[in-house]
Amino acid sequence: MNNATTPITETDLIPLARSMGEALAKAGLLAATAESCTGGLVGHLITEIPGSSVWFVGCAGVYSNAAKERLLGVQHAMLLAYGAVSAEVAQQMAQGALPLYGADVAVAITGIAGPGGGTAEKPSGLVHLHLSATDGTERAERVVWTSDRRGNKLLSAQLALQMLLEFGVLS
Amino acid sequence: MNNATTPITETDLIPLARSMGEALAKAGLLAATAESCTGGLVGHLITEIPGSSVWFVGCAGVYSNAAKERLLGVQHAMLLAYGAVSAEVAQQMAQGALPLYGADVAVAITGIAGPGGGTAEKPSGLVHLHLSATDGTERAERVVWTSDRRGNKLLSAQLALQMLLEFGVLS
Question: Is A50–B114 a contact, with Cβ atoms under 8 angstroms apart?
Answer without folding.
Answer: yes
